[in-house]
Specification:
Layout: H1 8-21, E1 37-49, E2 52-66, E3 69-76, E4 83-89, E5 95-98, E6 102-108, E7 114-120
Amino acid sequence: FGGLVGKPSEVAEKSEEKTEEETPPEPEKVDHVEKEALYHIKCKLFLKSADGWNEKGLGIANLKKCNDKVQLLIRNDTTIGTVILNTLLHDKMPISKSGKNGLLIVATTEDSKTETYFVPSKQR
């Protein structure tokens, strides 16, 4: 018992303080704005499935110039910044306004599937 310094009641109080401090950290929110972005906005991304709309995540939508085309890149607002949508926009791509501040985008995935995305934003 040579390692205990102080009264037993003081040692018990210190151990209680440690358990209060040992709460898991909350995920850090980071805005991943691309340096080359022509425009960026905070938004959510939903993917349409047979069951309805499934939320893919919350993050920053970046419009970037990519050669002669424009790229839409949406990253989660977590510290890692996982890419949740990355597509090139072109003239024949179906994009329509939905509601006050939302967009419906029909994009082709890497495995040639057509997916419908809904991108609402609180900003105008």
